[in-house]
Amino acid sequence: MTDLKNTRLLDDVQSPDDLKDKSREDLKQIADEVRQEVIDAVSVTGGHLGAGLGVVELTVALHAVFKTPEDRLIWDVGHQCYPHKILTGRRDRIRTLRQGGGLSGFTKRAESEYDPFGAAHASTSISAAHGFATARDLQGKNNHVVSVIGDGSMTAGMAYEAMNNVGGDQKRQVVILNDNDMSIAPPVGAMSHYFSRLVSSRQYRGLRRLAKSVVKPIGLENPARKAEEYLRGFAMGGTMFEELGFYYVGPIDGHDLDVLLPVLENIKQMQRPVLLHVVTQKGHGYAPAENSADKYHGVSKFNVVTGEQQKTKASAPKFQDVFGETLVKLAETDDKICAITAAMPSGTGVNIFQKAFPKRAFDVGIAEQHAVTMAAGMAADGMKPYAAIYSTFLQRGYDQVVHDVAIQSLPVRFAIDRAGLVGADGPTHAGSFDIGYLGALPGMICMAASDEAELARMVATANEIDDRPSAFRYPRGEGYGVDIPAELTPLEIGKGKIVREGTSIAILSYGARLQESLKAAEMLAAQGLSCTVADARFAKPIDADLTERLAKDHEVLITIEEGARGGFGAFVLQHLAEVGALDTGLKVRTLHLPDVFQDQDKPDLMYEEARLTARHIAARAIEALGRGNVDAIERIARA
């Protein structure tokens, strides 16, 4: 590997224009230096490493050949964009990746003119690029539009919807398929297998051996090897893409600039949709990543020399692991239980279930719509499917939740991970909206876990619901260290619980802000203000008796949730209005996420910004009550 301090050529690159007059050998050296810069930066910040290392040469080639930002370069998902950021004037800030006030871990329009389209969810790039190509033609422009999409993203139907449209319109557009045979989890489905077969089939290898035997005696073995890269597509593959209306080129080595540069130059001249198939290795050029099962897809800070990650020792189990372990426990005595995830087996805890019950666990790839409707079909035939999907990704399957699950009252159980703010991944991955969008559906049962024991009971509760869909949400990261009961008694549907009794102020918490609510109650008690704290457990059906009692017996009612406005607080207000509980002078304050998309930061700082910490809860209660000392609350918080 190149010395980390030796970046003499990269030091001269302030923008992609500085690549235009470089020799091919210089570009190779710049690629090496970019790779080392990425490794060094991510070792300090943590983040997505493997994907970026896999596209270093491709990134250099694209910026050397195309005239960005006039030529539009769109990265699918965007977690592979660190080399792109280094080459587009952001190298001086690359060590602020995923930090508060720093660079986003994905492409972001507000950050640079070289990011024409923001991303973080998969399979959007071809559609966005087609929009740019259409706008270009309508405005009489002549720039190029290029999208880079991984083989994992090609498992999503949206990519094919876009390709079908592009092929029909025949607008000038380049799609680069980055085939690294691995997205986040090991590849699944026919598409990934197809790409693998394409370059390893007997027919192809037979043709290759025959060609070598012909050209070697006459000294053409090396030129023929290069020609072989171009001929692969014609001899063996690309039929599907050709049928969709694309001119297929490839597969070629995505790490070989001697191949990439001339092929991209040729593609620039084509006046139709082109698909270039490049084969890359995730984690390429960094041995610890190459040798890791996940190719260092997402890493914490690490030692550059050894690759050892600096992971803190967990003080409590992660919520996702509690879900997976609880599901295993239930499945040991219930053979109807199944688990479905969309390319996130480890992130959701489904990998734990998968290890115990491999025939009842299904990773469908990046295909949330399919995952939801598949679960609906399984439920319709008597199984008990748990669809474990991040809150932010469930948005992608919302029509299926409505049409295929809710309208038919099918008992699909939605395990909604990453509820609330998620720190370094920022607004694209925050679980902000599921309370509102699921709570709006007739018949849906919505739960939120305040701790890991509550989550385990909610998993068991969902298992008993067989006449309608249900959902339970839980946050990212570790629990609070509470004991999980050996016997998991299902919750009574629509019933919360009082955690602390008081008289003047009531705090009704939905989800994981319960601990902060209890701290707020202590702050208020220090001023002689008596506070009741309740765990709502359910947003739908709401606990009518509990809610009305809190409204009747207290001067102030505070609701709190880790979700957007229009969620739990709105449900409480609507119920109280319907029963006339707001007619008697009750003071209500609803605390929720702010009506903005919050940028990445440390989670505790994000909740500070959202004003959902104990001191903010206590201050709002004092403000509503009209007595008490907010300054005293601030002093306690700083102590």
Shape label: globular
Strand order of the largest sheet: 9-8-10-11-13-12-17
Euclidean distance between termini CA atoms: 49 Å
What would you call the structural class? alpha/beta
How much helicity do the residues have? Answer: 40-55%
Largest sheet: 7 strands, mixed
For the secondary structure, the number of strands is 19
As a whole number of angstroms, the C-alpha radius of gyration is 27 Å
Parts with pLDDT < 50 across at least 5 consecutive residues: 182-189, 191-202, 228-236
Number of helices: 26
Work out the strand percent: 5-15%
Mean pLDDT: 89
Protein architecture, described:
With 639 residues, this protein is α/β, with parallel strands linked by helices. The chain contains 26 helices and 19 strands. It has a 7-stranded mixed β-sheet with strand order 9-8-10-11-13-12-17, with helices on both faces. A 5-stranded parallel β-sheet has the order 2-3-4-6-5, sandwiched between helices. The chain is globular, with a radius of gyration of 27 Å. It starts with 23 loop residues before the first helix and ends with a helix.
Write the layout of secondary structure elements.
Elements: H1 24-45, E1 47-48, H2 50-54, H3 56-65, E2 72-75, H4 82-90, H5 125-138, E3 145-150, H6 157-169, E4 173-179, H7 189-200, H8 202-215, H9 221-235, H10 239-243, E5 247-253, H11 257-268, E6 273-279, H12 287-290, E7 298-299, H13 319-331, E8 337-341, H14 345-348, H15 350-356, E9 361-363, H16 368-380, E10 384-390, H17 391-394, H18 398-406, E11 413-417, H19 434-439, E12 445-448, H20 452-464, E13 470-473, E14 497-500, E15 505-510, H21 514-525, E16 531-535, E17 538-540, H22 544-553, E18 556-561, H23 568-578, E19 587-591, H24 603-609, H25 614-625, H26 630-638
Parallel strand pairs: 2-3, 3-4, 4-6, 5-6, 8-9, 8-10, 10-11, 11-13, 12-13, 15-16, 15-18, 18-19
Antiparallel strand pairs: 1-7, 12-17, 14-16
Helix pairs in contact: 1-3, 1-4, 3-11, 5-6, 8-9, 13-15, 13-20, 16-18, 21-25, 25-26
